[in-house]
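Rather than argue in generalities, we have chosen a single entry, letters for residues, whole numbers for local backbone shapes, without further comment.
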Amino acid sequence: MSVKNEENQSDEVLIKHALSGDKSALELLIKKNQDWIFNVALTFVGDRDEAADLTQEVMIKVITKLETFKQKSGFRTWMYRIVKNHFLNMKRGKYEINAPTFEQFGEGLDQLPDESLSNYSYEVEEKLLVNEAKISCMKGMLLCLDREQRLIYIIGELFEFPDSVGSEIMEISKENFRVKLHRAKKQLYNFMNHKCGLINKSNPCRCHRKTAGFIKMGYVDPIKLNFQKDVINSIDKVLDRKIETYSDEVISDYQRLYQEHPFLRSPDKLDSIKKLLSTQTIKDTFNL
């Protein structure tokens, strides 16, 4: 039975057909999940090209391990456990190598001179440049968290996985997941409350004053605008909030700021994945 172009099919149905030799089902399974992996990766490392490579690496692992999925948990939970193991153990990327502490990050913002964008000439609208600077800065703040904290924040706060799922992904207890998430949120939001002017208007740091500096330092590319192309939606619009969350807390203003970030389409890396699908090992595994 072919499931070609049947995007409403569940992951479990696609897996069943893929393992029975339906190549189109396997490709559709990849397409359905790679955008999610890419957006987690992008938030985790803060760099679009590195996130694209990570997405490809993870999807290849998912494909090659697919026959080990026993449906003891949801497919996405199983897949994110692969993400967790890969992300926590991978080589450090260009922004992670010299990742600052919150104190160092704050000092860097203080030392960055306030400048008006009107002093410079860019082909892109000023509001787009400022928004790019805001997103880049907020992604940078997340790099001040250690890897485990960062991933727990992404899955627990940004994408709102309940503690029952988050703990299974991280392979820790639900209580431990909640404790670690609370600590990550406290560190991040305390920093923002004392430094960032997006919510706390008494803070002097303003995105529009720092944008020119971010451009000079290479954190914002006025031509590529890494966080504002291939936008599918905002993160908060793609969340499935039908499930019960782990907490009755009202969404904080800072959480809302992060969830307003764009949810992007992953770069098309399917060519290399299709090359993998053509190897004899994969053909034998999936009876292709």
